[in-house]
Structure formats: structure tokens, C-alpha cells
Amino acid sequence: MAKKKEEKTNVMRILDQRKIPYTARFYEDSEGPQGTREYGVHVAQALGQDPARGFKTLVARGASKGIYVFEVPVAENLDLKKAAKAVGEKSIELLHVAEINAVTGYIRGGCSPVGMKKQFVTVYDESCLAQQTMLVSGGRIGTQIECAPADLIKVTRGRTAAITQEHEA
After folding, report:
1. Which secondary structure element, helix H or strand E, spans residue 122, and what is its range?
2. Which residues contact 151 (CB under 8 A, 6 or more apart)?
3. Using H for helix, E for strand and C for coil, what is the string for 134-165?
4. Strands 121-125 and 134-137
5. Is the CA virtual torsion 144, 148, 103, 39 positive or negative?
6. Which residues are within 8 A (CB) of 84 and not within 5 positions of it... i.e. 6 or more apart?
């Protein structure tokens, strides 16, 4: 078990190379409802963290066939219209699960905005700026990286926008 905590992921290596401070957090993967809001909230709670600080990585294809990466809070849903507008597309659709690995190099549940096969346009929900640190996947299931939002935005050459769905009152 201790050995697992010492294993570096590509995400950690990239952050180390760029001298970006981070904290690696590890959790036991359970047979929870992966890919759902409940799973993201479950992971945050397993780490003893506020789910508002946990972000999930969603990958989408635009009408122009361009690939885009979106970081949204684990308890929120991506608003496809807002996301399309944020990247200058007429429309976008989330990639099918079967395409995730081929496009990003990561598997579902372990997809990180850092260290994908290619540098894609990356947009973080603007709510991340209200957090001192945020958590994103560390590049494999069971690993999260806690880092300052500005550092993650810098390393991924990302930007922020309002990209989550509005809550009904």
C-alpha cells in the first residue's frame, strides 16, 4: 500500500518539472457509480474535502471536430451551450467513453487536464477561482492532485468561463 503512494504519475512528473507545488491525495477506488456526480462527491468525501473544490475533467468535440477539455465541479453539470460559446464553437458534444483513451491517453475516471497526449483548449469553470486550491484527477483512478487554480490554469494554458448549468430555484 505504501508503495502505491510513492508511484509518480505523468501528471506529477509534469508538475515537478514545471516546479508547480501540489499535494497528491490517494483514495481507495470503490465500485461506486463512476462518471456520475455522485461518484465525484464520493471521492471528495473519501478524501475529507469539500466537493466544491473537486473538479472533474470532461472532454468534448466541437462542430468543427476540434477537441476541448472542460473542468467543472464534481457536483455540477456542464452546460453544453455555455461551453460551446466559451470555445467559439456552434455546438459541442461530450466524447463517447470508448474514445477517451485514444484521444487523451487516460481512462475514464482517471482523466486529468494535465499531461494529455496533445495540448487541447482547456476551460475551467470560473468557480475554481473562489478556491484556494482545487482537486483534479492525478492521472489514474485512486489519485487526485490538489493545486492552486492559477497553477493548473497556467500549466494547461487554460482559461476560465461560466460553463456549468444554472440551478433551478
Report:
1. strand 121-125
2. 20, 21, 22
3. EEEECCCCCEEEEECHHHHHHHCCCEEECCEC
4. unpaired
5. positive
6. 62, 63, 90, 91, 92
Distances (CA, A) of 151 to 3, 39, 103, 148: 27, 25, 24, 5
Q: Any idea what the Cα angle at residue 142 is, between residues 137 and 148, rounded to 5°?
A: 35
pLDDT in tens, the chain (169 residues): 344 456 899 999 999 999 999 999 998 866 555 555 567 777 877 787 888 899 999 999 999 999 999 999 998 999 999 999 999 999 999 999 999 999 999 998 899 999 999 999 999 999 999 999 999 999 998 899 999 999 999 999 999 999 999 865 5
DSSP 42-105: HHHHHTT--GGGBEEEEEEEETTS-EEEEEEETTS-B-HHHHHHHTT-S-EEEPPHHHHHHHHS
